[in-house]
Write a structure and sequence with these properties.
Blueprint: H1 18-27, E1 50-56, E2 61-68, E3 73-80, E4 93-99, H2 108-112, H3 115-118, E5 125-129, H4 147-163, E6 165-174, H5 176-187, E7 194-198, H6 207-219, H7 223-228, H8 235-240, E8 254-260, H9 273-279, H10 286-298, E9 302-308, H11 315-332
Parallel strand pairs: 4-5, 4-6, 6-7, 7-8, 8-9
Antiparallel strand pairs: 1-2, 2-3, 3-5
């Protein structure tokens, strides 16, 4: 869904590390990276995206400040470096992009899950960019923001040039980020080997989903209209952001879809009613997930699904899902 229920949980706060910051800011422009792959579209503006600040979170986790020409501003990006990144300075690495939900930010995956522990032995660069509050992971039709250009053009090339990323990529997203992951994969064929969507809308034309979107849009300052235009007048734009309308675009990659039935379960214990009730709307997602999966299989796409009961629109289930798919993601991103 375009929203996600956010629970603020304390994590280690970013701390300045002047020596590391100076080292990275001085040396990154001179790190040799691989040639950009043909699957990533390029524009002259791509070369201008650059890292303007670095903060260390822990030994391998950094917060980057990236100046983006597409966005016209600086955007925060959290990265977890591969285990051997410092000891093998000529090695390049596959990349896992992790996209947050609609009412969250780039810190959410490390705040709400143990992804750092999962990645402790991995030789994968993990990139968690900010996607804006209700940014829809799209280039908005009426000026900025231009999230898709930033995430699929500028940022991958920047990671290749400065952090030694290579052309092997996967993307995981939840809620709004799940729709973003599917859209980025479908709209940029060849860019990702694997795409996983947790609790996301997969069919913008589903009548139940469309009714929900109207309610959502009315209560969120018409973000969807601003991003994609009026659904009738700009039906082509809406269709171009609808995973169910571009099934054949996913050929050649692996897709994972998951969602809950909206029923409360043990993982919801201790949550207050104000956060549980909205997340029970998760149940409207399951029917379209199954239809989308069937269409993908009919088109020859390698797809797995996990429709679980109980399961609400909340972090405990997304953390569990991350653990379930992690081995597969790592298999798809060989070092």
């Amino acid at each position: 869904m375009p929203y996600n229920v956010k629970k603020s949980v304390g994590r280690a706060k970013p701390i300045s590390c002047s020596i590391l910051e100076l080292l990275i800011l001085v040396t990154l422009p001179f790190v040799a990276g691989p040639t950009a792959s043909a699957s990533v579209r390029t524009t002259p503006a791509d070369a201008d995206a650059r890292i303007t600040g670095v903060k260390r979170i822990d030994a391998r986790t950094l917060d980057l400040t990236v100046r983006s020409p597409a966005m016209g501003r600086r955007v925060p990006v959290r990265v977890i470096l591969p285990a051997s990144w410092r000891t093998e300075p000529t090695r390049t690495y596959p990349t896992l992009y992790m996209l947050h939900g609609g009412e969250d930010d780039y810190t959410s995956w490390t705040r709400e899950t143990d992804v750092e522990d999962l990645a402790k032995d991995s030789e994968v660069l993990i990139v968690m960019p900010d996607g804006g509050r209700n940014g829809q992971y799209s280039d908005w039709q009426f000026g900025r923001p231009r999230w898709e250009t930033f995430h699929t053009r500028e940022l991958p090339r920047l990671m290749e040039r400065k952090l030694r990323a290579n052309s092997a990529r996967a993307v995981i997203g939840l809620s709004m980020g799940g729709l973003g992951a599917l859209n980025y994969a479908g709209r940029n064929p060849g860019m990702f080997r694997y795409a996983a969507s947790f609790s996301a809308i997969v069919d913008l034309d589903d009548p139940v989903i469309r009714a929900f979107l109207w309610l959502y849009n009315a209560s969120h300052d018409n973000e969807l209209i601003k991003a994609w235009g009026d659904p009738e007048e700009h039906a082509d734009i809406w269709n171009s952001h609808n995973p169910s309308a571009m099934v054949t675009a996913y050929r050649g990659m692996r897709i994972h879809l998951s969602a809950g039935t909206g029923d409360m379960g043990p993982l919801d214990e201790g949550r207050d009613a104000a956060s549980v009730l909205p997340s029970m709307s998760e149940g409207i997602l399951a029917p379209s997930q199954n239809r989308f999966a069937q269409a993908l299989r009919a088109a020859g796409v390698d797809v797995t699904t996990h429709i679980y009961k109980p399961g609400t629109h909340s972090w405990p289930y997304w953390k569990r899902e991350l653990h379930l798919i992690w081995p597969t993601v790592m298999d798809e991103l060989p070092g």
